[in-house]
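Z., the sequence and structure:
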Amino acid sequence: MRLILASSSPRRYELLRRAGVVFEVDPADVEESVGETDPIAAAVRLAELKARTVAQRWRSEGNFILGADTIVAVEVDGAERLLGKPAGPAEAREMLAELSGVAQRVVTGIAVVRGEDGAIFSDHELTRVHMRTIEPEEVENYISSGEWQGKAGGYAIQETADRFVTHLDGGFENVVGLPVERTLALLRAAGADLSAWDRLSGGCGEGHGGVPSSPLPLE
């Protein structure tokens, strides 16, 4: 029995590792464009796409493939805008300007494909993040740090961007990129025996693949 994380995100890797789960990493190479106008639909669709793409390589009994995607939604000029990962510094700067001083919705979609029959199970979690006003100099310093790269909305709450956040309504792990308890519940719903992947109690998992060069701090 194998759990496959269909993501190259060091943050999702670290969250799942800290949960005591043994898994392997097989990133999904998919286009992460946001087609929907609803953040929940968009995040779940991309999570399902990632899981289905990787599941094609793991079609056997006992395999479970986990995909996830995080999207930030913010109201701009009376309309909700969905923010994925910025393509470059200019887009990251624009995103931070839009997020400054307002509340945003952070949605992580999760999807599990059961390898033996291709059945898919999906869910999502939503956290409302409240930010203080970010001064222009702070924006430029943050852009220069490079922390915005690969982050939905152009910021990482588990790194130095936590100083921009006043409070959360909802889960912190969801903003980082993976609502762990909801993910474990979804795996159980798909029929996974989590005890087989429990490295803390000597489960029979086969170890991690694609280990990041260094674990990222989450506090």
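The two ends are 32 Å apart (CA to CA). The first helix runs from residue 10 to 18.

Let me know what you think.
H.
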